[in-house]
Amino acid sequence: MIRYRRPRQDDTIIYDLIEKQLVPLSHLPQTIINQVRKDLPRRLGQGVTLVACPDYESDPLGFVHFMLHGDLLYIDMLAIAPSARRKRYGNMLMDRAERFALSRACHRAKVSVDTGNTAGLAFYELGYSVARYQPQNYCYELEKQFR
After folding, report:
1. Which of 31, 51, 79, 104 could join 17 in a cystine, given CB atoms 3.0 to 4.6 angstroms apart?
2. Euclidean distance between the first and final Cα of the chain, in Å?
3. Which pLDDT score is estimated for 111?
4. Minimal CA–CA distance to 78: which of 112, 32, 107, 104?
5. How many Cβ atoms are within 10 Å of 20's Cβ, its own excluded?
6. CA 80, 30, 109 angle in degrees (round to 5)?
């Protein structure tokens, strides 16, 4: 099931997923990564975070954090625990984020995927297409238009 983030219950697990699933894929310098870590509480306070879990009271197996900017849905972070992969949690999180955005008149979506994250790139390319490569950030920017 998908539900909204509960900071007290979920944030420790979300931070752990970020640390173990997203940080190792980043090509950013350690000083920037340390600043990102410090900024996580504020960052999660902006936008919307949804979590995937087996039932309403369970701890998260994955999460998506996103923001809306006018008619743009920006997927900031998506991470799924290794034990929960290939069970459609990522698809369910993305579907819910996109439906949320559509209900608020968004017409397009954008996500950045780190170079070397071949699994992430393959996941997003099922509905998104590569718009450009950002060499300064070592990542691909993917976009999707909503119908």
Report:
1. 79
2. 25
3. 97
4. 112
5. 12
6. 45
* pLDDT recorded at residue 100: 97
Cβ distance 16 to 45 under 8 Å? no
Inter-residue contact 115 to 108 (CB < 8 Å)? no
Q: Cβ(81)–Cβ(48) under 8 Å?
A: no
101 close to 107: Cβ distance less than 8 angstroms: no
Tell me which residue of 88, 124, 98, 113 sits closest to 1, measured CA to CA.
88
Mind listing the pLDDT tens digit for each residue in 22-51?
A: 999 998 889 989 999 999 999 999 999 999
User: Cα separation of 145 and 38, whole Å?
Assistant: 33
pTM metric for this prediction:
0.94
**Which parts of the chain have pLDDT scores under 50?**
none
Q: What's the token pair of residue 12?
A: 């420790």
CA–CA separation, 11 and 62 (whole Å): 11
CB count within 10 Å of CB 8 equals: 7
24 near 16, Cβ under 8 Å?
no
